Amino acid sequence: MILPSTLQSARSWISYSLPRGGTAVDATVGNGYDTLFLAEQVGPEGVVFGFDIQQEAIESTARRLREAGRQNQVRLFPCSHHRMDEKLPAEVKGKIQGMMFNLGYLPHGNPEIITQPQTTIEALQIGTVWLAPGGMITLALYTGHPGGQEEADAVVNWASALPPKQFQVMWQQMVNRRHAPSLLVIEKR
């Protein structure tokens, strides 16, 4: 297959904006795959901040990072992404080069615990302030579960209203597959 998956595409976009030694946020750590990707991308001289409301996700991610020898450059917060303002150190404000969101629920976890439009939009509003010029936010949007379409619609509507002189926004989706995940990419100018 030549076309990348939604997650492969998200990582590809982030790799453009996130240099070695950079600063990144995984807003929904889940099982830690994106957290590990970000840690590898920034290398030992960079830093990654990760958020998740489920302790199971934090533990799974911490284990994955330890196994890969990347735990020292990642700080995990067992709380919602909309609390970034409270948790991120002031010295990284306006300096985050990559931020990833995988919306929905924890794979192999409780499908009733899902990300919510209100807190996701709040996290995005905060994220755009903390993002460096040239930095990117990627959002994998999943619509095949209860609440997923509503959240995806809210996020796309919010992103569509971002001022074009300050942000570029792209939306990517496989259109011939029912409930295919889509990817929203936001670049700060």
From TrEMBL:
Transport as UniProt keyword: no
Matches recorded under CDD domains: AdoMet_MTases
One of the protein's GO biological processes: methylation
Alphabetic keyword roster: Methyltransferase, Transferase
Any GO MF annotation of the entry: methyltransferase activity
InterPro entries xref list: MnmM_MeTrfase (IPR010719), SAM-dependent_MTases_sf (IPR029063)
Protein name from the UniProt record: Class I SAM-dependent methyltransferase
Organism of derivation: Paenactinomyces guangxiensis
Highest classification ranks of the organism: Bacteria, Bacillati, Bacillota, Bacilli, Bacillales
